[in-house]
Amino acid sequence: MHNLNQLIDRLLSAITGVAVIAMMLHVVAHALMRFFFNAPLYGTNEIVAFWWLPAVALLGIPAAHLQKEHITVTIMLENLNARTANVFRIFACAVGALISLGFAWFGLEEAMKNTQIGSTAGVTDIITWPVYYLVPLVFLMLLVLYILDIVVIARTGRSDVDPLTGETVSNEPTEAPL
To answer: Phi-psi bin for 118: left (phi > 0), alpha (psi -120 to 50), beta?
Structure first.
């Protein structure tokens, strides 16, 4: 499972990185064309808003989950024994999985609706309906990750194992160097 997590993390990071660079190049090219040639690239604002930004934002959700980079509030769990704390962690993962399932379901319905009407970006003819399928895809991936977390906690009794390295991670905040 460690190798699968690492592969998924690298793939998500690579796709997100490509989207960020493409968005940057697109915006810079648009600005240069507008400034030097008074001919901006058609639909730049729509492409950035409807294609690049959703890709960057949505793909970061499962990547942050894989890297255990989500904010965790442990004030209640600190004072519980390990077994009871793990029950609460499994419950939290189950709630996260159910919410992810709901977002995936709603996102799929919206994507299919936008596909039927041939959704475009505002008054332009730039199609946007394919991007809507990113929502159910990302949240189904997150659902699977939550289920895997439940399995890891139930099997090992530990939630502090980094799925990428297999090492124990600290939930203590680290100080940034000045």
So the answer is: left
Do residues 41 and 29 lie in contact, with contact meaning Cβ atoms separated by under 8 Å?
Answer: yes
Domain boundaries, the chain: 2-156
- Contact status, residue 26 vs residue 44, Cβ threshold 8 Å: yes
d(CA 9, CA 3): 10
How far is Cα 145 from Cα 2, in angstroms, rounded to an integer?
A: 12
Please name the helix (run of DSSP H) or strand (run of DSSP E) that holds residue 122, with its range, or none: none
Q: What is the pLDDT of residues 130-153, one digit of tens each?
A: 999 999 999 999 999 999 889 888
Alpha carbons 52 and 36: distance in angstroms, whole number: 25
pTM, two decimals, is 0.83
